[in-house]
Every structure is written in structure tokens, then in C-alpha cells.
Design a protein that fits this description.
The structure is a single chain. The chain folds into four domains: about 130 residues, Rossmann fold; about 120 residues, Rossmann fold (3-Layer(aba) Sandwich); about 220 residues, Rossmann fold (3-Layer(aba) Sandwich), CATH 3.40.50; about 120 residues, Phosphofructokinase domain (Rossmann fold, 3-Layer(aba) Sandwich). The longest helix is centred in the last third of the chain and has 24 residues. About 40% of the residues lie in helices and about 15% in strands. Helix 5 runs parallel beside helix 11. By secondary structure, it is an alpha/beta fold. The strands form six sheets. It has a seven-stranded mixed β-sheet with strand order 11-10-9-12-13-20-21, with helices on both faces. Strands 1-2-7-8 form a four-stranded mixed β-sheet, with helices on both faces. A hairpin with a 4-residue loop joins strand 22 and strand 23.
């Protein structure tokens, strides 16, 4: 099975098997397993496959008895194989399995959909067209919902929440409104299972005809179909499934005859990253369908789980401007600090729009803290941020300048524009900058305002969060480059590539990319290595060249070691591998910062923008006295981040205690526990006792 991790689909093939739905079919299957001495089964599939596997397990004893009676196996064989252990992995692009937040394949399907939407957006804008996009999801609207949220679609149809009666008038009115405001395109996303309130299907052609007849817009339908199942897996899917696959084997190794059949699933970002919890498949998925059949639509959305409901509510908030109930007395300013990271613009867009919904005056600042000191500040409206969602880099412009170099001027502009809250979207400098502003509060009363940092950096090195905005896009960019490099290596044979990644002192980018591309080693600062480790790696590659996989890939984080530089590694590998393999260097550089944001970063940025502004609004109300804002408690300046499974706000003054400022790193990093998996998958001999497996949880 030496197929590359970059290959999509399934190498061992997949089928919907009619025979297995019958007892005779399962009897034949039991006979085949026993003949091969197999009693541990790992089933990767959707709801149907896992339900089938569960039935198979409950019938196992009876099936063996029947085989003995028919004389197909002996009593002794039946005794030896009397227990069947089953573990399931959910592989389904619909993400419709209750009890798991992300199923294998969902993220890759979203990548395909967003690629199409980005491509269609350019043609639609050129021709002033309306596009109706039909995505997969007969019973589950997850793909439609998330791609609608990630593309800022004008209208969305999902089976769980049919539109109100009379929706035709409302939709056409909305589309007409956006056009009259100067928008050159409309995007409507429809799940293939879309229905109206009476359960009658709504087809993409019906929607198209409606727009053409009522508005006369040039309208096209694009049905995405099986494109969504194809292509190369995204980084998230590769890391997720590698982790789940290991977890499944561990579950089988630990299983006893009393262990119930279990499903390995990702719940939130447990243990910070991808810690699949093992849970037993429940019946919630069926309950959703029942609620939809009985027209209990609100309940159907709740049954889909918190993240589905959250996505739906945020989509409704941001898609159309609703006039604020009343004008608020507060002004908020938004700026980008540090290096550009994909998803920054998505966060600015949602923050501006949610602020306007709350009635605040919203300012944006160009060029970070430097722009704030120079007064590059302007007020923005709802439509000024239209189309920002899918843009990479930073539309506002970003600088690394820290406030202490221009504190007086910053204070002057905060006073001049009467800014009562500051939303800083950026990397380590954003966090460090806000910390400097907080520490200057004693000197300047103007800085006693609400401040929030949205961590956005490809390095993922900001304390207070497990994931920084932009790191998913960077890992995918590095992964795509490494895929190509590996392809070139497999053509020349016996070649080892040494690839240098960015990330400062933080080894996140190297490690996660390493898992996603099946690297032989990834050198990082946090996991110290010596000349003995380098020697072991060279020997490992020498042995590998004797097998049929005659290529190697070694990743090196840019600052992993003061003396063992990329050049040093190249010289070492070249001389040690002389006559066995040759070496090449690749420095990935700034391509890791670029590109359109991935679906994850678009949605993560959107959600963080919304949550940050809602939190700031709440804090502003708390500290508003006699017509002015005065905030100087620790919790009035926080970093927003995803920690384990929840969005949390951590005061910058608290985070200071757990930060290594010299190396610009949090002192503790969750992803270090992924490093063991990288080594195990690269085929280093590692004892299984070192591996910490997931917790049992009944879903």
C-alpha cells in the first residue's frame, strides 16, 4: 500500500454492497473472515456502512453457529474466533454523522466547492450574472451551509431550514437590492435536497427560472456533482484521518470481548488538535430526518449539533443588512498587525458588519499601529467590505511596527477619533502590541479602552489559542508544494529533498505539513535534536532507498537550530548518502503566506470576527459610565482563541506569564503530541506504550 497520502478516493476500493444487507451475505462474510483468521475489523464509511457493521457484530455469534451447523467451519475454529471487534471511522463528505464534528472528506469537499465558487465569481462579475450553484447533500445541508458562509452567498437553501412561504418575492427583492447597490454578481447556493415548508423539492432550475422571469438577470445553473468527492485530500483531512486511523488500531488492540463497537470521531479540536474521542454510534442522525419529516425544522437544526446551528445563525446575521435598532455611542477601530495571513479580510468583514448591526461607528486603520499613529483611519459601511471574504493577504495593509515606538501619536489619534475599542487582527506583534498599550494605561487614560486580539499568523505562535487564523491556508500551501516536490523525486529515484518552512521558532507548520505529506523527518526548535538523531535519520533514509520507495522528504523549520542550518543538513545528507542517494534543497519562503484562504480560514475568520465584536460590545456596556468608557481591569484586553473545543477570551496580562518572548512562542503547545505520530508513520521503531490514545466517550 505504498500509494501516496496525496491520493484521493480509496486505494482499496469501495462499494455499496446489496448482498451484505441480507443474512446470507453476512454469513458468507463471516466465513471469509474466519478462514483468514481475522477478528478485528476497521470500517471506514458513512452511516450505512457503520450501521451494517454494527448489525454484523451483534449477529457474529449466531453466524458462527450457523457455519458450524452447515459444516463450513469446525467447533474449535468457532471457539477460537468467537469475538469480533469492530471500530468505525466516519468517511462521508456530508458531515451528517451526529457525535462527530468533522467527518473524513468534508474539508476536502469544501475545498473543491470553494475552488469552483472562486472561479465562478470572476466570470459572474465580468458578465454581471447570477449563478445558482447546486452542491451535494440530499438530507444534510452542511456543505451548502458552510460554502454559503465561506462565499458570502446572497441566498441559501438547506433541507433543515426551508424558506418561509412567499420566499420567492423576498429572494427576488434581495437580489434586486444588491444589484442596485452596484454589486455585479449574485450567488445562490442550493443543497440537492432543498425543500419548501410543505416538503416539496426546490430545484436549481426552478430558482433560475424565477430569477430570469422576475428580474430578467442573466442566470446560469452549475451542478457540482461528483467533483466534490474527487481531487487530492486537504491538509486537515490528511492529518485528521492519519490520527483517526492510528486511534482505530489502538482501540482494536485495547478491545476486550465486552467492549462495545465504537466509532472514532473528532469532537471539537479536543486536546487542542485532532484528538478523536471514541464514541458509540447513536441514533441522532435518524432523529434529524424524523424532525424534518414532521416539519419541526427549528429542532432539526438543533439536532445537527452546536456547530451547525452556530454556522446557520452567523450566516443569517451577515448575509443581509438589517438596520440597527438604535445608534450606539461607541466607536470601534480595526487594524492588521504583523505579516499578512489568509483569513484576515474575512475577520475584518464580519467584524465591520456585526459592529454595524450593533449600531457602532466602525473605523478601519491602514498599516497597523504605524497607520494608527499617522491617522490613516476611515469610517466604513456595510458594503465597503463586500467581496473581502475570499481575498488572501491583508486588504488594510499590515506592518510589524510596535506601539512603543509611536505611543504619543497613537494616544493622540485614539483621543481625536474618540476610539473606545480596538480590534487588532495579527500575529505575535498584535499580541505584544496590545500588551504594550495595556502596560501604558497608567500613563495615558485614553488607553483605558476595550481591546481584543484575533490571532492571525501562518506560524500559529500566539498564546491563548490552539489555532491562529491563516495557519490552515499556510499548511495547505506548503503541503501542495511538497506534493509536487515528492512527485519530482519519484521521477528521478534515490533523491532526498530538504525543504525549509517558515514559522520563526514555532515548529507547527513543519510538523503538520510533515504529517500531511508523509515526511521522513521534521526538525523543529521545540523538539531538540542532536547529531545522533541526524545520524539515525540518515541511516533510516539509506535503508529506505533499498525498498521500492526510493525518495525521501525532510522538513526543516527555519529557526530549528542555530548551527544545524539547511545548508548544513544538505552537506551532511549529501556526504553520508554518497553513492546511495543525492540531495536537493527547497526553501518554500513566502508562498506559504499567499493564496486564497481555505474554507476553514474563511469560516474561522468570520466566526472570530463576530464573536470578538459581540464580546467587545458587552464589555463596552459594562464600563460605560456617565457618557464615557473607562476600562482598566485585566479582562478588558484579551486574546480570542479556540481552546480545546470552545472559543475563549484570555487577558493579555495573564498570557504574558506563559509566553517565551525571546523565541516568540507560547510556553506550552498542544501540537507537540502529534510528533510521535509523524515518527511512527515514517516507520521508525517506536514502542506503542509511548502513544497516548483517546478517551472512551459514548456519543
Amino acid at each position: 500500500l505504498s500509494a501516496p497520502v496525496s491520493q484521493g478516493g480509496t486505494i482499496i476500493g469501495s462499494a455499496r454492497c446489496k448482498a451484505f444487507t441480507t443474512r446470507e451475505g453476512r454469513l458468507r462474510a463471516a466465513c471469509n473472515l474466519v478462514q483468514h483468521g481475522i477478528t478485528n475489523l476497521c470500517v471506514i464509511g458513512g452511516d450505512g456502512s457503520l450501521t451494517g457493521a454494527n448489525i454484523f457484530r451483534t449477529e457474529w455469534g449466531g453466524l458462527l453457529e450457523e457455519l458450524v451447523k452447515d459444516g463450513q467451519i469446525s467447533e474449535d475454529v468457532a471457539k477460537e474466533y468467537c469475538h469480533l471487534n469492530i471500530v468505525g471511522l466516519v468517511g462521508s463528505i456530508d458531515n451528517d454523522f451526529c457525535g462527530t464534528d468533522m467527518t473524513i472528506g468534508t474539508d476536502s469537499a469544501l475545498h473543491r466547492i470553494m475552488e469552483v465558487i472562486d472561479a465562478i465569481t470572476t466570470t459572474a462579475q465580468s458578465h454581471q450574472r447570477t449563478f445558482v450553484l447546486e452542491v451535494m447533500g440530499r438530507h444534510c445541508g452542511y456543505l451548502a451551509l458552510v460554502s454559503g458562509l465561506a462565499s458570502g452567498a446572497d441566498w441559501l437553501f438547506i433541507p433543515e431550514s426551508p424558506p418561509e412561504d412567499g420566499w420567492e418575492d423576498l429572494m427576488c427583492e434581495r437580489l434586486g437590492e444588491t444589484r442596485s447597490r452596484g454589486s455585479r454578481l449574485n450567488i445562490i447556493i442550493i443543497a440537492e435536497g432543498a425543500i419548501d415548508r410543505n416538503g416539496k423539492p426546490i430545484s436549481s432550475n426552478y430558482v433560475k427560472d424565477l430569477v430570469v422571469q422576475r428580474l430578467g438577470f442573466d442566470t446560469r445553473v452549475t451542478v457540482l456533482g461528483h467533483v466534490q468527492r474527487g481531487g487530492t485530500p486537504s491538509a486537515f483531512d490528511r492529518v485528521l484521518s492519519s490520527k483517526m486511523g492510528m486511534e482505530a488500531v489502538m482501540a482494536l488492540l485495547e478491545a476486550t470481548p465486552d467492549t462495545p463497537a465504537c466509532v472514532v470521531s473528532l469532537s471539537g479540536t479536543q486536546s487542542g488538535g485532532l484528538d478523536p474521542t471514541r464514541g458509540c454510534s447513536g441514533h441522532r442522525t435518524k432523529d434529524v430526518q424524523k424532525a424534518m419529516d414532521e416539519k419541526r425544522f427549528e429542532e432539526a437544526i438543533q439536532l445537527r449539533g452546536g456547530s451547525f446551528e452556530n454556522n446557520w445563525n452567523i450566516y443569517k446575521l451577515l448575509a443581509h443588512q438589517k438596520p440597527a435598532q438604535e445608534k450606539s455611542p461607541f466607536s470601534l477601530a480595526i487594524l492588521n498587525v504583523g505579516a499578512p495571513a489568509a483569513g484576515m479580510n474575512a475577520a475584518v468583514r464580519s467584524a465591520v458588519r456585526i459592529g454595524i448591526c450593533q449600531g457602532h461607528t466602525m473605523y478601519v486603520v491602514n498599516d497597523g499601529f504605524e497607520g494608527l499613529s499617522k491617522g490613516q483611519i476611515r469610517e466604513v459601511g456595510w458594503h465597503d467590505v463586500a467581496g473581502w471574504l475570499g481575498r488572501g493577504g491583508s486588504m488594510l495593509g499590515t506592518k510589524r511596527t510596535l506601539p512603543k515606538t509611536c505611543m504619543e501619536k497613537i494616544v493622540e489619534n485614539v483621543r481625536k477619533f474618540n476610539i473606545q475599542a480596538l480590534l487588532v487582527i495579527g500575529g505575535f506583534e498584535a499580541y505584544e502590541g496590545v500588551l504594550q498599550l495595556v502596560e501604558a494605561r497608567g500613563q495615558y487614560e485614553e488607553l483605558c479602552i476595550i481591546m481584543c486580539v484575533i490571532p492571525a499568523t501562518i506560524s500559529n505562535n500566539v498564546p491563548g489559542t490552539d489555532f491562529s487564523l491563516g495557519s490552515d491556508t499556510a499548511v495547505n500551501a506548503a503541503m501542495e508544494s511538497c506534493d509536487r516536490i515528492k512527485q519530482s523525486a519519484s521521477g528521478t529515484k534515490r533523491r532526498v529533498f530538504i525543504v525549509e518552512t517558515m514559522g520563526g521558532y514555532c515548529g507547527y507548520l513543519s510538523t503538520v505539513t510533515g504529517i500531511a505529506v508523509g515526511a521522513d523527518a521534521a526538525y523543529v526548535y521545540e523538539d531538540p535534536f542532536t547529531i545522533h538523531d541526524l545520524k539515525a535519520n540518515v541511516e533510516h533514509l539509506t535503508d529506505k532507498m533499498k525498498t521500492d520507495i526510493q525518495r525521501g522528504l525532510v522538513l526543516r523549520n527555519e529557526k530549528c537550530h542555530e548551527h544545524y542550518t539547511t545548508e548544513f543538513l544538505y552537506n551532511l545528507y549529501s556526504s553520508e548518502g554518497k553513492g546511495i542517494f543525492d540531495c536537493r534543497i527547497n526553501v518554500l519562503g513566502h508562498l506559504q503566506q499567499g493564496g486564497a484562504p481555505t474554507p476553514f480560514d474563511r469560516n474561522y475568520g468570520t466566526k472570530l470576527g463576530v464573536k470578538a465584536v459581540l464580546w467587545m460590545s458587552e464589555k463596552l456596556q459594562e464600563v460605560y459610565r456617565k457618557g464615557r468608557v473607562f476600562a482598566n481591569s485585566a479582562d478588558s484586553a484579551c486574546v480570542i482563541g479556540l481552546r480545546k473545543k470552545v472559543v475563549a477570551f484570555s487577558p493579555v496580562t495573564e498570557l504574558k506569564k506563559v509566553t517565551d518572548f525571546e523565541h516568540r512562542l507560547p510556553q506550552e503547545q498542544w501540537w507537540l503530541n502529534l510528533r510521535l505520530m509523524l515518527k511512527m508513520l515514517a516507520n521508525y521503531q517506536i514502542s506503542l506504550t509511548e502513544y497516548i490514545s483517546g478517551k472512551m466517550e459514548h456519543v
